[in-house]
Structure formats: structure tokens, C-alpha cells
Amino acid sequence: MGAEKRHTLEAILEKASMDAKFWDEAIYAFASYFGAKGALFIPIESKYRGAWLTFTRELSHVISAYLEEGWYLNDFREKFAPIGRRQGYATDYDITTKEEMEGIPYYRDFLHKHGLGICIGLSAPTPNGDWYMTAHFSKDKPPLSENEIVDVLEIRELFNEAVQTSIKTSQEKLQSYLSLLGESNNDILLLDLDGKIIQHIQGAGLLSNSQNESYADLAGLDFNGFLKPEHIEACTKVLQTAPHDNYVTSWKQTIDEVDCEISIRQLPISLRHFYSAAKAIVYISKNHHAPSDMDQILIRDFVLTSAEAQTALFLSKGHSVQEIAEVLGNTEGTVRQKIKAIMSKTSTNSQVQLVVLILNHLK
Q1: Residue 240: its pLDDT value, please?
Q2: Selection from 176-180, 251-255, 284-288, 304-308 with the highest mean pLDDT
Q3: For residue 91, what is the DSSP state?
Q4: pLDDT surpassing 60 at residue 95
Q5: 337-362 pLDDT, tens per residue?
Q6: Contacts of 340 (CB under 8 A, 6+ apart)
Q7: Residue 220 counted as domain residue
Q8: Is the pLDDT of residue 158 over 90?
Q9: What is the structure's pLDDT at 209?
Q10: Pair (29, 155) in one structural domain
Q11: Residues 209 and 309 both lie in one domain
């Protein structure tokens, strides 16, 4: 715990609050600061574990056992929850004693086998429940001293501030993303990890306000016959097990005598990192193609990557390189490189020619 390591941790947490990819660096700085064997960023709710964990490479074998042996479904450290909410942090000494650990399977048969036993967990509330930044030590680490507790609380404050800023930033980026896609012919629904609707953007008026008020639990309901449990179950299964997949499904449906295209897809990973409540998006469109279906057409017909297809769509809607970079979490240089690659794959010589090609292709 030195001044230089603290400065490094503070700087990376500040970056992570504005760009989700820096959380991977933050856990290394966190482990280094506390002199831990490794660090893990983990939610208290088990359904957000598995594919949604991030950790230092030193814990790779431990996390593999944690998932494969089912310990994530019976994590003794879930007892951290009320303690962390009350005091901002928790350690194993808050929920048991060193003597009792020898008789608890989670410690005896799992942690101790991997040279671990004690962790310090700093808590932060998020839309997906409490998340913990945890530093891991051997079973011989003694309880925190009074001076160490003061230090832990100071770091916890920095961590919590970064998380809250990150949540706000991700929400702003999400709204910007939706505004880029927004059209008067679309109704847009945002879904959480369980398939519950958390936001409805009514553009085309295809769904009434009275229906919108009943969007409490989408998975068990059938609105006008257009969105059935099997649609949600397929999407949530992917969200909970393979968050990096580019999942999308679509079908045609008549709603109130209007022919529509309906699509469900995962949001871009940069917009649903860790604790962002929104994980998937539903488009109900009166267009021939729903926006979420358009990028799949470009991927198929021009052999574009998913990121290139999204960039091409935003460009075709008249958005600037700067706007696209801000929403997708790229640098302007990266966006320009993508545009150059798209032009090469589509055999176009200018952005104007590219936009015309895309608009004509998606008619």
C-alpha cells in the first residue's frame, strides 16, 4: 500500500468510470495495491456470475473450479451482502472464524485447495444488485488492523464513486445509442437479464400506453400475440451464458392490422458491461427491415464484422465520426479505420458513395 500504487489505482478507476474496458485493468491495480494473490470483480447475485465475471489471470484456475464444480451456486460469501451494505466492505472474518473455516466445505474443499482463504470485498450498489471488488489472500492472512480498515474504507469510496459514475456514463451512452437508431417507425423495448422490460420508447405507437404500464414481467406475458415466452427464453439464455455472442432473432408479425418486423438482440457489449441493467433490445418496426436486422443483412451481403455493420448503419443515418465514436466507445481514428475497411469490402470510393449503396441495399 504505497502512494504510487494508490495513485495508479485512482487513475485507472477514473478511466474505468468513463470506459468499461478499463475495469479489467482496475482489478490488477486493486490486487497490486493490497498485495493480494489476485482480484475478482463479482456480483452478490449468483445469476450475474459465470460469464459476467472478470478477474486477474492468477485466479484463472480458481474461477474455472468455481464454475465447473458449482461453487458459484453455493457461495458462502453471499453472507457478505448485509455486512457490505452496512459498512461498505466485508472480509471472511465478518462471517466466520479461522477455526470454523476448516469445517465449512466452501473453504476446506475449495478455497484452501487453491491456496486461498481470506478476501477483502469492497461493495458498490448497482442496478443489478451489489457488486464486489475483492482482493484474495491465503488462509493465514490476519484480520484487518484499524489502520488497514481506514485505508480499505478510503479505497471503497473511490471504487463506489467510479461505479456510480460508470453507471451514469453507460446510461448516457445507451440513450445516445437509442437516439442514433431512433425512427418514427419503431417502437423500442429494453430488456434486463431476466427478460423484464425496463424501458419503452414509443415511436410508432404500435403498443398502447395502457399496455406499456403492464410491462412488469415480459417473460410470462403475451402482448397482442407478438412476443411470446419462447422468444424471451432464447434471448435470456444467451445473455446469461454467452454475453459476447452477437445474438439476434427476428420475425414478421401483424399488429393491429399493421405488418411489422420484430427483432430481439443483445445490445453491443460496450453498452451492457457488468452492471448495466439493460442487456437486450426489442425493435417493433413498420419498416421492411427492423434496425436490428439491417446490420445482419450487411454482415451477410458484404462480409462485414458486427462492429463494421453498426458503423455503416450509423453513417447511413447521417451521424458524424465523432458521434459514432462516442456511442460505440471507440476513438475517432478507430471509426475512420472501420469506415475505410467497409469501403474496401463494398468497393466504394467515398463515404457518400458508401451511404448511397447502403440506403439502396436496405430498401
Answers
A1: 65
A2: 304-308
A3: E
A4: yes
A5: 999 999 999 999 988 888 888 888 88
A6: none
A7: yes
A8: yes
A9: 40
A10: yes
A11: no
CATH of the domain at 269: 3.30.450.20
Task: Judge whether 176 lies within some domain.
Answer: no
Is residue 323 assigned to a domain?
yes
pLDDT number for residue 181: 65
Torsion of CA 52, 53, 54, 57, to 10 degrees: -130
Considering the entire predicted model, what is its pTM? 0.70
**Do residues 60 and 38 make contact, with C-beta atoms less than 8 angstroms apart?**
no
Sheet holding 129-137, edge to edge: 54-55, 38-43, 129-137, 118-126, 89-91
> CA–CA separation, 342 vs 242, rounded Å?
27
Dihedral pair phi/psi, residue 352, rounded to 5°? -60, -45
> What's the number of domains the chain is made of?
3
Q: What is the CATH number of the domain that holds 86?
A: 3.30.450.80
pLDDT-derived band at 8 (thresholds 50, 70, 90) equals very high
Q: Please say if the pLDDT value at position 246 is more than 80.
A: no
The type of residue at 55 is: F
Specify the DSSP class assigned to residue 106: I
- How many angstroms separate the CA atoms of 174 and 63, rounded? 30
Domain boundary among 287, 306, 322: 287
Render 224-283 in DSSP notation, one character per residue.
Answer: TTSS-HHHHHHHHHHHHH-TTS--EEEEEEEETTEEEEEEEEEPPGGGS-TT-S--EEEE
262 touches 287 (CB < 8 A): no
DSSP-derived 3-state class of residue 27: helix
Q: Are 44 and 109 found together in one domain?
A: yes
Domain final position from 287, 308, 326: 287
Q: Which of 169, 162, 211, 150 is nearest to 41 (CA)?
A: 162
Range of the domain at 243: 182-287
35 burial type by CB count under 10 A (0-12 exposed, 13-18 middle, 19+ buried): exposed
Alpha-carbon Rg for the chain, nearest whole angstrom, is 23
